[in-house]
Amino acid sequence: MILCVTPNPAVDRTARVNRVVFGQILRPLEVLALPGGKGLNVARAARALGAEVVTSGVVGGHAGRWIVEEAAREGLNPHFVEGGNESRTAYVVAGDDGRSVIVYERGLEQPEAAFDELLMRLRNELLAGSSFAVFAGGLPAGVDPSFLGRMVAACNHARVPCLVDSHGPGLQAALAERPSIVKGTKDELAETGLGPADGDPMRLAKAVVKAGAGACIVTLGARGAVACSGADRWRVSVPAQRPVNSVGAGDAFTAGLVVALAESCPFDEALRRAGATGTASVFELGAGFVNPETVRQLAAKVRVRRVAT
Length: 309
Prior knowledge:
Elements: E1 2-6, E2 10-17, E3 30-36, H1 38-48, E4 53-59, H2 61-73, E5 81-82, E6 88-95, E7 100-104, H3 112-126, E8 132-136, H4 146-158, E9 162-165, H5 168-176, E10 181-185, H6 186-190, H7 201-210, E11 215-219, E12 225-229, E13 232-237, H8 249-262, H9 267-281, H10 292-299, E14 303-306
Parallel strand pairs: 1-4, 1-8, 2-6, 4-5, 8-9, 9-10, 10-11
Antiparallel strand pairs: 2-3, 6-7, 11-12, 12-13, 13-14
Helix pairs in contact: 1-8, 3-4, 4-5, 8-9, 9-10
């Protein structure tokens, strides 16, 4: 059972067009609306890989009700808290030429009481029976960043390993509570102040581990990822692909990783499956969609090599 928490869910609207051309009206060839945000994308991919999932977070308004209804229809087992204010919308225009335009609303403030209730549910219900917990995405405006730290502390108390994929003060608060894994892009992890975004990603990963994470993975898009866990260092190389939509590939990477770890795979093998899952997702228009057979085929082409410390 993989618990996926999205603090700031969204209605994800993705339109596929022939080409992204600025200054012109674009007629979509296909439009897809999904319950989204990082944690929901992770859950969608994890379920495609055969895992049972539970999803949670704080939603509000008509958009929030739609997110919960659609998550249930997808089999994502939603246990969301009602926050009151309308949930946000995210927009992606993906061109067949490989270019895309992405617009993420920040979203309205949600009351602190809703996050207190979410934390209580986590402690009393949601962690029970979970093999792994994922906290993915940023916090809505007005929420105390310490919330992510308290979520990690609840996992540690329940002895449930957790992965945090966030940024800014929320990630800093999570690090203080020593999460099992921190994953993010160079830009996201650089917001901790532990290293520059344009520096060596392995050095940044090592700094995040030194700051409290059990392991750190820095995703590098089409260039794969680097990972640091204790004294071990790895570089993950993935086969080049022409993407349909690369949005959500990092979330699919997370899904492949935590499902493998929940199945007691060694960390390097989990990285291989993560790289294959993230790469497989770029063939799909919807974020978090993966074909398990494509993942299996790509896993043989993903290279995970140990590098010197």
